[in-house]
Amino acid sequence: MARVFQHRSGDEPICVDFFIGHRFTIVPFINAIDPLRIANLVSGKTLFETRLISDDGKPVTAINGMEFQVDAAMGDIHRADNVFMFIGFDPLMEVPPALANWLRKLVVQGAHLGAAGAGALFLAQAGLLDGYSATIHWNYRDSFLESFPKIRLSRNAFEIDRNRFTCAGGTATMNLMLHAIAAHFGPDLASEVADLFIAGEVYQPETEFPRMERARVGIAQSSLRFAVDEMESHIETPLGITELAARANISQRSLTRLFKDHFQVTPVQYYHRLRLQHGQRLMQQTNMSATEVALASGFRSPEHFFRSYRKQFGCSPIEDRRNSRLLGPDEGED
Predict the structure, then answer these.
(1) Domains in the chain: boundaries
(2) Residue 72 pLDDT more than 90?
C-alpha cells in the first residue's frame, strides 16, 4: 500500500502542514484534517501533528466567509515533512513567486507535497508536478490536459507518486486520508475512522472518481457507459455514431434508444453538447484563442462552433470568457 506522507521516525508523530490560501474551499480541507484528528482520538496516541500556515501568518477567509486562525507564516517555516495545499485558485492567476519558491525549497529538503482539487493546477503552474502522475477535479481536467503535457493525469480519486500526492477534492480528500492512515498505521485503524465518518470502505488510489454525466444519471447499462466513455475520450477528433456503436458492440438503433431512454437526446445531440461543454471549460480556464478552442473541441469550422456555442449558452465564447472572469473562479468546484 503506497504511503502518502514522509515519516522521519516511527516513534514520532507524522507532521502535516496545511497551507490555506484566501477563498480556499472548506469541504476538502475539513475532509483532510479531521480524519487525522479522529485517528489520534481513536488510537489514544498522537499519530499526527498538524499546523495551519498562510502566506503572511494572518487569519485566512475561506470561500464561505469563515475565518481561520493560522499557526505560522510560510516565511517562519524553514523545514517541513509534508505540506498539503488548499488554495482558492483561479486557473489563470499567476503563481505568487514567493510561495512557489518556498515550496521548491521545502521539496529540495525532502518534503512531500500535495494538493486537493484545483490546488493541483497551482502545483502544475509552479512546475512542481512535471514528470509526476496526478489527478484533479473533473471540472479542470480538460484545461489541465491542454496546458500541462509533462504531467500524467489520471482519473483516479487520488494519486500518490513518490513525494507528491493529489486528489480530486471533496470526498476524495477523505478517501486519500483514510488510505494514508491505513498505509501508515494499519487498515483496522483506518476502518474505525471511516466508520465514525460513515464513510464506508477505505479506497485504493486506482479508484476512479465518478464521471460527470454518467455519475449524475447513474448509467447501469454497460454499452451506454462504454459509449459515453468513448465520447469523453474522443473530443478533439469525434467518432462517427456508426463507429461508436460498433465499438460498443451494439446496433446504431439500439444505441440511439439507450441515449433517448437515459438522456432524452440522440447520441449525436449528446456528443455535440459534450464537446461544447469541453469548449466552455477551455474558454473559461485557459488563454487559448476561440479558434483554438473550437478545434480542440472537435469543430472543424470555427463559425459552426461560435453559432453552436451561442445557441447552447446564450452568449458568444468571448463574451462567456469575459463574464466568467468578471465573476471570478467557480466557487464550488472542489
Answers:
(1) 14-196, 212-327
(2) yes
The CA distance from 86 to 313, in Å, is 31
Domain 14-196 has CATH 3.40.50.300: no
Strands 112-116 and 60-61: unpaired
Residue 148 identity: F
**Three cell numbers written together for 39:** 485517528
What is the pTM (predicted TM-score) of this model? Answer: 0.71
Cβ-contact 19, 159 below 8 angstroms: no
Nearest to 280 by CA among 244, 303, 314: 314
Task: Count, in order, helices (H) and strands (E) of the chain.
Answer: 14, 11
Task: Label residue 173 exposed, middle or buried (CB < 10 Å: 0-12, 13-18, 19+).
Answer: buried
Sign of the four-CA dihedral 251, 253, 256, 258? negative
25-35 pLDDT per residue, tens: 888 999 999 99
Task: Match 516565511 to its residue by C-alpha cell.
Answer: 75
Three-state SS for 184?
A: helix
Give the cell for residue 47: 499519530
- CA distances to 34, 40, 47, 177 from 181, in Å: 12, 10, 9, 6
| CA distance linking residue 325 with residue 285, whole number of Å | 9
Q: Which CATH class is domain 212-327?
A: mainly alpha
DSSP per-residue string spanning 248-293: TTS-HHHHHHHHHHHHSS-HHHHHHHHHHHHHHHHHHH----HHHH
CA–CA–CA angle 20, 21, 24 (5° rounding):
85
Average pLDDT, the chain: 87
174-203 residue pLDDT tens: 999 999 999 999 999 999 999 888 766 555
